[in-house]
Amino acid sequence: MVGNSPTAYLALAFPATTRFVRISSNFSGFPSPVHEFDREAARLLDAHAGPLLLLFQEPERAAPLALERFALRLDPSTCGVVRSNLVHPRDTPTRLCPVSRSGSASKAVAAWPAKPD
What we know:
The chain has 117 residues and is of the alpha+beta class. The protein has helices at 36-47, 63-68, 105-111, and strands at 52-56, 72-74, 80-82, 94-101.
């Protein structure tokens, strides 16, 4: 999950075995300095051998920097729209997208600048 939008309620629509990690929010992730929450998210991502999906309701331009921090990449053409009666049709749609790894999330987080530019 990426962003500040309240999307966690959608987790209830997934199988109980699905794991969710929010890599960016109003208290962690880009543009905040790296802290333990980011390092733990990176460890969880590195430990997961299966496919990774991104769930977010932010403008597409918001996701790439959050993903870069964790060595993840998004191809927006692969995203699907998640419909919910809690999202107004005029609001930014909630999307579910496959993401790919470009390296170790833990190494990427460790290399991230201490303070954003």
